[in-house]
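Justification of resources, computational component.

The compute hours requested in this renewal are based largely on the per-chain cost of generating structure records like the one below. Each record pairs the submitted sequence with a full structure-token output. That output is archived, and it is also reused by downstream analysis tasks.
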Amino acid sequence: MKKTLTTTALGLLAALGLTTAAFAEIRIGASISATGPAAFLGDPEAKTLEMLVEEANAAGGINGEKIELVLYDDNGDPNKARTFATRLVEDDEVVAIIGGTTTGTSMSILSVAEDAEVPFVSLAGAIDIIQPVKPFTFKTPHTDRMACQKIFEDMKKRGFTKIGLISGTDGFGASMQAQCKSVVADYGIEIVADETYDPKDSDMTAQLTKVRNAAGIQAVLNPGFGQGPSIVTRNYKQLGIELPFYQSHGVASAGFIELAGAEAAEGVRLPGNALLIPELLADGDAQKPVVTAYKAAFETKTGTPVGTFGGYAHDGFLLVTDAIGRADSAEPQAIRDALETTKGLAGATGIYTMSAQDHLGLDLSAFRMLEIRGGKWTLVE
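The structure output for this chain reads:
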């Protein structure tokens, strides 16, 4: 599926089922998993990009030039993502690509973007996307390694020294599991149970029973995303496990609470971002006006709650358009160079300061440790 968008009027034509050729001064591409198994991530990302392009063009575009969004739905399929990335570069001649809802689709897109020397901003979490640093690849979400570190900081504060893992075998879950294992010893914590599940599994009680029975276990962490962690959370409650339970930033959305059920999700902790708790932010927080404005615009436009994943797309668009504006150029190389010199740019996910050695630009302060209470996010002090 492909969409193009240049102005509000064009968006109206599209809504009416009409098509038209769109020729814009600045053409930005996107491959998003708006449908398929990762649709709960990709749908708000696609809607966010469409909304932001409309807003930007209504305000005059970038330095007076209109933006065209060329958007493909890759259904979460890495092969489709690679095909669409090639089409964006060779046929659509975009100046930058935003997307890669999942780690798998991001890895496919970046291989094309790097070969073509077109800047790519990924919306997926795995650290492998940006480490080692690749010249034209950037990303907006915190890495899975950072999520492990934030979680282990909290566990250490609570005095936990023996924990269990139950991880998804998808790209995100496997990557975060590996990253957690690589840093856990830094916090004086030992993994005493290590189980996995296929994202398509419908019941994880067998693995959770093994985790619960591990000697000396004090807390449990579930690296994963999609529906799997919701099932794990329900099974955790059904088994009556009373150990503190942590999830990853891969499920930091209202959809997770809905799928797992508020009762089962009660007390679950995870690292999230400011977008989930704008009303709890201090007035002087640099992210507060950004997340408040985005939340209001998105919820008014779509009638659905704002979430972490749409925020990743918000920041991807912000980074690209900011780079084009500062470079005063829509040439891919100029955009790439400007992205690498981003300094103190407040987004929905964090405040970005990039360099030649850092194509993410976030530190652990961008994460907020959250706990679900009464079906809502609360801030852990």
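The CA atoms of residues 278 and 292 lie 6 Å apart. The mean pLDDT is 92.
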